[in-house]
Design a protein that fits this description.
Order of helices and strands: EEHEEEHHHH
Oligomer: single chain
Number of strands: 5
Number of helices: 5
Strand content: 15-25%
Distance between the termini: 41 Å
Length: about 160
């Protein structure tokens, strides 16, 4: 099988890899780079468990060919914390009990982080819209939305997302 040489910056670290032409980014992150916070569930880009930031934008890594990410900067949930400290979004998810089983949490945290970077004061409707690509079978979304609202309110008080 033909291998393609790519270069990725994942959570600030540069990686030179050879990937198969049909290898998905999720598999590269999980199996090759040990970024297991990026979950794989549906394999169709509809559940959000595999969401990562690709050049600052949330994407479903389970449907993105790794070769198409060549030259990109990728942030996984593991790359959000700084100096061993959780971000405001991660803290809010814990504080508001928005984690339940935790399987979908990394995708929700990544998507919420991207939303708040783009729109520091989203309305409830904007939060719900931004999170529509992430599915949760445990929480009913109420606590997740409340956690994002809490971070937005705190940002308004001068507290940052990261």
């Amino acid at each position: 099988m033909t291998q393609l040489d790519i270069s990725l910056t994942v959570n600030g670290a540069r990686h030179e890899l050879s990937v198969g032409p049909t290898e998905m980014l999720t598999e590269v992150l999980r199996r090759r780079l040990d970024m297991t916070g990026t979950n794989r569930d549906c394999g169709m880009g509809i559940c959000g468990a595999c969401t990562v930031l690709l050049d600052g934008q949330p994407v479903s890594s389970c449907i993105l060919l790794a070769a198409l990410a060549d030259g990109s900067e990728i942030t996984t949930v593991e790359g959000l914390e700084r100096d061993g400290r959780l971000t405001a979004v991660q803290e809010a998810f814990l504080r508001h009990g928005a984690v339940q089983c935790g399987y979908c949490t990394p995708g929700f945290v990544i998507t919420s982080t991207a939303l708040l970077e783009e729109n520091p004061s989203p309305s409830r409707e904007e939060i719900v819209e931004a999170l529509k690509g992430n599915l949760c079978r445990c929480t009913g979304y109420k606590k997740i939305v409340e956690a994002v609202e809490a971070v937005a309110r705190a940002k308004g008080d001068g507290v940052g997302v990261s």
